[in-house]
Amino acid sequence: MESISYDRFTTPEAEINHTGQKFLLESGRQNRKMYIIYGVLVLYVFILTLAVGIKISQVSQDVADVGLSVESIVASIKEAPKTLQIENAHFSERVMPVRGPCQEDWVFYKDSCYFQSSAKKSWQNAENNCIQKGSHLVVVNDLDELDFLSAIVKTSNSYWMGLVEKEEGQWSWVDGTDFSATEHHWDIGQPDDWDFRVNGEDCGQIHARITEERRRLWNDADCTLSYPYICERKPKSH
To answer: Are 210 and 150 in contact (CB under 8 A)?
Structure first.
């Protein structure tokens, strides 16, 4: 007996169902793609927002830092006059010495130039060295000048000044200034013309001892001893 084969035919309803399922499947895939794209966009926007927020925070901190720096600079400018004051100054108007019209290594104060030596010499050699520089050992005319000199000296040594006792009890300034017409600022018990010195003590110096007012007063000493010294002269334009 011959076998009879039958062709399978789909009905219109089956085709419609198949097409619908295919459409739903494709639609679901597209929806998943959209969800993925949407999720990626949301994540990107979140990351971007986070980055912008961090950047804004950094900029705000930078602005705050700049503000603090400006405030610090302004405060430094306001404090500048105070920082310019000499550490051991005892009156407010004293400021760091300036070169002004003076040559290098000289400082200017009240129309005079001052040189502070680092080398130590006897009084006469110190005066000779000042003369070679076109000057003389410093002549202290008043308390303000003494305060200035007290403030600029760099060491704890005594310093020769232009005061000498040519005759017993007769002190004189090297530039001819009348000693009796100037203020006298001897340290306590000075001048004592210490008897133990063979050569006596006939030369004046700015004492190493510092008073409570941060001032160095005068002392008499043996002229042959070696001390640093201070020279004084008028600026070259004078």
So the answer is: yes
Which DSSP helix (H) or strand (E) runs through 61? helix 12-83
Q: What is the dihedral of CA 187, 191, 194, 197, to 10 degrees?
A: 100
d(CA 7, CA 10): 10
Phi, psi angle pair for 36, to nearest 5°: -65, -45
Tokens 């925070």 belong to residue: 57
What whole-number distance in Å separates Cα of residue 225 and Cα of residue 203? 10
Q: Which residue in the block uniquely carries the two structure tokens 């793609």? A: 33
HSE of 89 in the Cβ direction (CA atoms, 13 Å)? 18
Residues 6+ apart with CB under 8 A from 210: 88, 150, 216
Please report, in tens digits, the pLDDT of each residue of the chain (238 residues total): 444 444 444 555 555 555 556 655 666 677 777 778 878 888 878 788 777 666 665 655 555 555 555 554 445 444 444 333 444 444 334 445 666 789 889 999 999 999 999 999 999 999 999 999 999 999 999 999 999 999 999 888 999 999 999 888 899 999 999 999 999 999 999 998 765 556 778 999 999 999 988 999 999 999 999 999 999 999 976 5
Q: State the DSSP H helix or E strand holding residue 125, giving kind and residue range, or none if neither.
A: helix 123-132
> Cα–Cα distance between 163 and 123 in angstroms, integer?
10
Give the Å distances, CA to CA, from 81 to 101, 108, 148: 21, 18, 17
